[in-house]
Specification:
The chain is an alpha+beta fold and 216 residues long. The protein is built from eight helices and seven strands. The protein starts with 12 loop residues before the first helix and ends with a helix.
């Protein structure tokens, strides 16, 4: 690992402002204390979001959530419901919420280079009526994440324009890297015992079968 001991850290918020300058007036004023009609319309079209959480000690985590567009329920101008679908049961996000309710959400719409940021306080809920409204293929989630909205604002497109995220010619062939199963097997195998081709094949088949039968 390269020695980074000589990297100069910015020592304070004041020093950071000296370097970066002040935000534009509109960038400050656009922050809302609730969801307006534009936020609601954005969320209704969004099939994907990232949720940022942290535990009681501040250790952070970001997790993706996705479903058909409109999967996030907007109960009112300050309340969102995010269904929890079957996963690996690590429960990183929900465990963090139990310890520290502060969350940050970033909503995406395919083809849109703008995003929507929502910050608030979350709780884990198991209300049957709420969960029933989130059912897909007749299967309701076991729990959901309720977010009390504190802040909401639209984010400009610079990051997605720079990354060319939605550009067809920027797509990377999935074969450029090993399969998910192969990478995880290699990461977790003892150094002197790399996974066999049969082990990788079996793991690939398990993952693909789970995608077909374990989504909901």
């Amino acid at each position: 690992m390269d020695d980074d001991s000589d990297i100069c850290a910015v020592p304070s918020q004041g020093a950071l402002r000296d370097i970066m300058g002040t935000p534009m007036d509109l960038a400050v004023r656009k922050q809302l204390g609730k969801l307006d009609r534009h936020c609601r319309a954005f969320i209704a079209r969004s099939p994907f979001l990232c949720i940022g959480t942290a535990d009681a000690d501040g250790k952070a985590d970001v997790s993706p959530r996705g479903d058909p567009a409109g999967f996030v329920q907007v109960l009112d101008d300050q309340t969102l419901i995010i269904p929890d679908r079957p996963g690996n049961n690590r429960l990183d996000t929900m465990s963090n919420i139990m310890a520290n309710p502060n969350v940050g959400l970033l909503f995406f719409i395919p083809g849109f280079e703008d995003t929507l940021r929502v910050n608030g306080r979350a709780t884990i809920v198991s209300d049957p009526a709420v969960l029933a409204r989130a059912a897909v293929n007749g299967k309701a989630p076991k729990v959901a994440i309720r977010v009390a909205v504190d802040e909401a604002f639209l984010h400009c497109a610079k990051a997605l324009k720079r990354s060319r995220l939605w550009a067809a010619d920027s797509r990377v062939d999935r074969r450029a890297m090993p399969s998910l199963a192969q990478m995880i097997l290699e990461q977790t195998a003892p150094p002197a015992q790399p996974p066999t081709a049969q082990e990788v094949s079996s793991a690939d088949e398990f993952v693909e079968a789970d995608y077909k039968t374990g989504m909901y």
